[in-house]
Amino acid sequence: MNKKIKVKNSGLIKLQSFNDFPDGNLVIGESNRNVPFVIKRFYFINNLFNKKSHRGHHAHKKLEQIIFCINGSFVLKLDDGKNKQRILMDNPHYGVRLGPKLWHTMEKFSADCVILVLADDYYQESDYLRNYDEFIKYLNKK
């Protein structure tokens, strides 16, 4: 994983991990410690068998999230309106902060990919920016 984040409203999150060989790994995240907010919602994405799938394609006005690839791999594309970055997500010990006003897209999923997302608020459709041109306008109006 590229450990340098160039886009605004983002950053790298490292979880505690313990190798308990031969009994697997234990990875721990805690609200307001290595997860910089109280977790109000989480969701996961799996069964990404279509290699041409694209997910995301949106930004949020206020919501903050952290995205992890807990199995397999995918490419996370970030865009803050000025800078763009592609990050290979393939290490379950690291997540990427998806702060507000950050366009994100996921693609190039391995067949065994499992994505976990933690969010600091409950679902609110009004917080979504689902059109890229509207996202750019939103960034420029403030």
Automatic annotation (TrEMBL):
Pfam families: FdtA (PF05523). SUPFAM superfamilies: RmlC-like cupins. It comes from the Bacteria. CDD domains: cupin_QdtA-like. InterPro entries: QdtA_cupin_dom (IPR008894), RmlC-like_jellyroll (IPR014710), RmlC_Cupin_sf (IPR011051). Residues 9-139 form the Sugar 3,4-ketoisomerase QdtA cupin domain. It comes from Candidatus Falkowbacteria bacterium CG1_02_41_21. This is Fatty-acid oxidation protein subunit alpha.
